[in-house]
Amino acid sequence: MSNLAASQQNSSLSLIDSVDLGAVQNTLAKINQFQLVVQNTLKANHDYGIIPGTSKPTLLKPGAEKIQMLFGVTSEYEVVERIQDYDKGFFAFTVCCRIYKNEMKITEGVGHCNTREKKYVKQDPYSMANTCLKMAKKRAQIDATLTIASLSELFTQDAEDMQGYLQKEQIETMTPQDAGAIKLKFGKHKGKTLGEIYRSNKDYLEWLAGQDRTDAMIKKAIEIMFAAVVEKGSNQRQQKPPQQQDRSHTSKGANSKESMTNNTRNQQFDNEPFVIRDEDLPFDL
Q: Element (H or E) spanning 113, and its range?
């Protein structure tokens, strides 16, 4: 045995000799108990996902948040790498999540996302930049959470194991701007964004959302767009003086008809009609 190998072995033995085995056994027992609590507390298909053919379930954001609550810890986030290339349309973010207990750092995790990932490459990268930042933050949170109580034994965050949940993850962080930027890949409006279709043929989107075969992401995007329009219209009504509101409902004539022709109306989520100009739609970039 070489002197270097002998020195390393002696160092390892010295480290083991300094360990309180009783304390280690107690710690391992508590870890096992906590893992059981986690397994009994988290809900399948909400806190974690079970993907056929994989050895471990995949921890999702709601599950990570519950685990942090069980531990009574807090998390802080820092963007440690940021690439925003507006000329080439490439955006990438790396986020570090640090978990604290009583102001003492317990662990940290790292998450990365960029607009060249498979689920983003066919979409407008400029509208996906904020989504990528949110994804990186979420992945960092889950990465840090998995190190608590050795939860990596129970869950995975392997990207290859998450294919069934990538769409769900994207839906959870979708904004009205994200929704309006999604392009259809089929039908008479193929190649157009949902925002463009809303302006020219809103009825088509209502029909599309009601079809069983429509992709879940498209349905959710349409729902988010209509809901955002309703919310903005409601806010506009609340800001109008009462006299102005009355005139907006009773005015008739050529000017009124022209105004209705040039503006977008939506009543799907509200019985009271309202008017929003196309340039003020909440999914405009």
A: strand 104-114
Which three-class secondary structure state does DSSP give residue 65? helix
Q: Which of 271, 126, 281 is nearest to 199 (CA)?
A: 281
Strand ranges, E, within 18-64:
48-49, 58-59
pLDDT in tens, 62-121: 899 999 998 899 999 999 999 999 999 999 999 999 999 999 999 999 999 999 988 787
Structure tokens at 146: 């998995």
Cα 231 to Cα 274: distance, rounded to the nearest angstrom: 11
Q: How far apart are CA 65 and CA 137, in angstroms?
A: 13
CA distances, 144 to each of 29, 52, 139, 255, 282 (Å):
22, 25, 9, 60, 35
In the structure encoding, which two tokens stand for residue 232, read together?
């903005």
Instruction: Give CA–CA dist 283/66, Å, rounded.
Output: 32
| DSSP 8-state secondary structure symbol assigned to residue 150 | G
Residues 265/274, Cβ–Cβ less than 8 Å: yes
Domain parsing of the chain, residue ranges: 32-173, 177-280
The DSSP annotation for 123-189 comes to: S-HHHHHHHHHHHHHHHHHHHHHHTGGGGGGT-B--GGG-GGGHHHHHHHT--HHHHHHPBP-SSTT
Spatial neighbors of 196 by CB under 8 A, at least 6 apart, are: 189
Residue with tokens 């020195």: 7
Amino acid at 64: A
CA–CA gap between residue 170 and residue 75 (Å, rounded)? 22
pTM (predicted TM-score): 0.53
CA-to-CA dists, residue 5 to 13, 17, 136, 175, angstroms:
12, 18, 42, 58
